[in-house]
Amino acid sequence: MKKLLVIYWTFFKMGAVCFGGGYAMLPILERELVKKRGWTTKENLIDYYAIGQCTPGVIAVNTSTFVGNEIGGIFGGIMGTLGFITPSIIIITLIAALLSNFAHIDMVQRAFGGIRICVCALMFMAVAKLWKSAVKDMLGTVIFIMVAGCSVFLDISPVIYVILAATVGIIADKIKSTSKE
Amino acid sequence: MLYLQLFWEFFKTGLFSVGGGLATLPFLYDMAKKHPDWIDASSIMDMLAVSESTPGPIGVNMSTYTGFKTGGVLGSLMATMGLVIPSVIIVLIIAGILTRFKESKYVQAAFYGMRPATMGLIAAATIVVIKEALMDTSALAKGDLLGLFEPVSVIYCIILIMLMSKLKVHPIVFVAVSAVIGCFVKF
């Protein structure tokens, strides 16, 4: 029981300082989990991170579940995840409550006008960075263009695209391996 | 009923958004279409900015915000649990068969197809973001193509992109500066 609480608290602290997620949080995880606690190794952490990127869901949550599970089994995984997301839930709930009280003020609206342009620029940067790791060849480019084009003009749930693309990936792999034989 | 709906919508998001962070964005825009009373395109953008400026994963911040706006504290808990539960279940299953999962040909082939698709979904979401922040779509109805883009906003956005690729500072700095500039310049 005490161990589970320690897991919860450790992940709570990391959740409170990890901004934005993604690669930015890797050094924080390493310092806390590998160097300070010795709960996992750097190699394991990088493995979890890589698998976290190709399993559904929030990467930080996937990584927390992996590490928590390694130290404390299933409940360790659950406690690690709950710890990591608790600060977010508290902070965002406070901000959401504040925003709905202040959103109508002229100055706040103008500030958000500026912030929205900043979001545009941030998105652009993120897409440029993601591009290299996601779109690697001809088939990838075709899938990218088809999905981007269709989702701009058609009203289909993203779920359908993800399932279709996974199927295409598996079929392409089958064709490639049969043509080799 | 509302709580179950919130849970279910975010459960789907958690189950199908691959690659974290921005991958949840297309699902949020889809949700805004289906449930306009939950969230709209401009508050998704505001929330993106808040997420970049507060700790925690973007996906969790988004689900908490949408849930809170729709159903208060309980709503935010339901939405976030919905988002997180598929991850936790899948990871706990995979953790037992870690090496086999990593080396499976089928898993690799599926993700080979899913990555560019997720990228395509994010690109489409970026277009929605640009439309919200930089364009005046009412000009299109008037047939005024030149008036479609707001020049001051576009120039400021380009300056920001150039600064971001040069300076290695935290996004929160850009968000804060933009908020201050926004107070003085009407975007």
Keywords:
heterodimer; A: 181 residues; mainly alpha; 2 domains; 7 helices; 0% strand; flat; B: 187 residues; 79% helix; globular
Q: Please report which band the strand proportion of chain A falls in: under 5%, 5-15%, 15-25%, 25-35%, 35-45% or over 45%.
A: under 5%
Query: What global shape of chain A is seen?
Result: flat
Shape of chain B: globular
Total number of beta strands of chain A: 0
Instruction: Please give the domain count of chain A.
Output: 2
Structural class of chain A: mainly alpha
Number of domains of chain B: 2
- Count helical runs of chain B: 9
What value does the Rg of chain A take, in angstroms? Answer: 21 Å
Oligomeric composition of the shown chains: heterodimer
Secondary-structure element pattern of chain B, one letter each: HHHHHHHHH
Order of helices and strands of chain A: HHHHHHH
Strand content of chain B: under 5%
Q: Which two chains touch over the largest interface?
A: A-B, 95 and 103 residues
Number of helices of chain A: 7
Q: Between the first and last Cα atoms of chain A, what is the distance in angstroms? A: 55 Å
Range of helix content of chain A: over 70%
Low-confidence residue ranges of chain A: none
End-to-end C-alpha gap of chain B: 40 Å
Mean pLDDT, all residues of chain B: 85
Which helices and strands occur, and which strands form pairs?
The complex is a heterodimer of chains A (181) and B (187).
Chain A: H1 2-17, H2 26-36, H3 42-53, H4 59-102, H5 106-134, H6 138-153, H7 158-180
Helix pairs in contact in A: 1-4, 2-3, 3-4
Chain B: H1 2-16, H2 25-34, H3 41-53, H4 58-96, H5 98-103, H6 105-134, H7 138-141, H8 151-166, H9 171-184
Helix pairs in contact in B: 1-4, 3-4
Mind explaining what this structure looks like?
The complex is a heterodimer of chains A (181) and B (187). Chain A is mainly alpha-helical and 181 residues long. Chain A has two domains: 2-102, no CATH class; 135-181, no CATH class. Helix content of chain A is 83%, strand content 0%. Chain A has helices spanning 2-17, 26-36, 42-53, 59-102, 106-134, 138-153, 158-180. The longest helix of chain A has 44 residues, at 59-102. The N and C termini of chain A lie far apart (55 Å). The model of chain A has no long low-confidence stretch (mean pLDDT 85). Chain B is an all-alpha fold and 187 residues long. Chain B has helices spanning 2-16, 25-34, 41-53, 58-96, 98-103, 105-134, 138-141, 151-166, 171-184. In chain B, 51% of the residues are buried. The mean pLDDT of chain B is 85. The chains are: A mainly alpha (181), B mainly alpha (187).
